[in-house]
Specification:
Elements lengths: L1 H12 L6 E6 L2 E7 L12 H13 L7 E7 L3 H9 L4 E6 L24 E3 L4 H19 L6 E2 L17 E6 L2 E11 L7 E5 L13 H6 L3 E5 L9 E2 L7 H14 L5 E5 L2 H6 L10 E7 L12 H12 L5 H8 L5 H8 L9 H9 L9 H14 L3 E7 L7 H10 L7 E3 L10 H11 L3
Parallel strand pairs: 3-4, 4-5, 9-10, 9-12, 12-13, 13-14, 14-15
Antiparallel strand pairs: 1-2, 1-3, 6-11, 7-8, 8-10
Helix pairs in contact: 1-4, 8-11, 9-10
Bound molecules: zinc ion.
Amino acid sequence: MREALSLAEQAGQAGEVPVGAVVVYQGQVIGRGRNAPIAGHDPSAHAEIVALREAARHLGNYRLEGCTLYVTLEPCAMCAGAMLHARLERVVFGAPDPRTGAAGSVIDLFARSELNHQTQVTGAVLAEPCGQLLRAFFRARRGNAEPVREDALRTPEAAFADLPGYPWAPHYLSDLPAAPGWRIHYLDEGPRDAPLTWLCLHGNPAWSYLYRHMIPEFLAAGHRVVAPDMPGFGKSDKPKKESQHRFGWHRQVLLDLVERLDLQRVILVVQDWGGILGLTLPMAAPDRYRGLLLMNTTLATGQEPLSPGFLAWRQWCASQPQYDIARLFLRGNPQMSPAQAQAYAAPFPDAGHRAALRAFPLRVPAAIDDEGAQEARQAQAFFQRDWQGQSLMAVGMQDPVLGEPVMRSLQQVIAGCPEPLLLAQAGHFVQEHGQQIAEAAVRHFRA
Ligand SMILES: [Zn+2]
């Protein structure tokens, strides 16, 4: 059955319904099949039929007496009929199929005493992994089939195939109160009841790919990791209009996500916009948060002028709206492979998908009345007076935008924030050196 399961996985990867089958004769596998009706334009290409054909060729006989067929899903009427024709001795199946199962679920062809051949049936062998594979497959397909809002774009799934170092399954929410119909993507790994949950927030123009060096360290410690893609980024739906990208909307989407997933014992991990927005979250639900892991970011309160580095970045974005994202990442991270740098560009196949990249540099609150500045000031007061959690700061020293001076002033604002880790080689996207930061963080934050 294990071999049938791995054939089922192959079918799923090929876009077919994940069902696999093997035929065993005298302890030896003589036929293998995986579902292939779509690729072969063949309605009869069920895993069982493919395996029966191969077994019959092997034996040189269309009668398969003495053979046992293992299949991950309860056979349909067609396959059950073929097994009876072949005088198969025994069939063992995994998950029941309540819609088309012909071994007891809908009908039971094997129990008809009028038929002159009887095939023995054993069901529910490894039913859980067999069924899990099918459920995951259909869940993912439903996800893809979900309608896209008129005012949104969705990056095709193919853009995200085979990204280096990003093996995690997608999770989606499409009904957050602040974002009805917007499909929001997030990673969710590790046990739900873990002692700590690392909530990892990216900035512009990154996405959850940014955390691929840190996630494995958190998981190895037995913790949970939740890493959303903000609307407009990564695998989340992308507003067509730049005007949709408002501070208050993004903040509320993140607040909704935390509530919906009911995140507890959170270590908030932030960098860039992940902090500009994310640092305003804990004051809204302080009981959920245990700690802060801060990398090159700021609280944009509108009280102090934005750094010259940031103003230069904003100017550059305005003059190069189609800037090369992969090159931007390579510039500060010569250790990255071209494929990794290209992965950052995957969510943005054309100018239409890049509204967030155009909008975000302009949305950083710069004046006292700018949207978000008030929330930032409230957050500042919260971290100065009310913050009880642990904190850790890691600074990418090569960052011209939100580097050491900006981080030193943020450190002053966070009660109990210790001397930062200084990463001499790291630039703005500090997470590219994230493995060592995550290791230090796992030691620093106690559950
Ligand atoms: Zn079938």
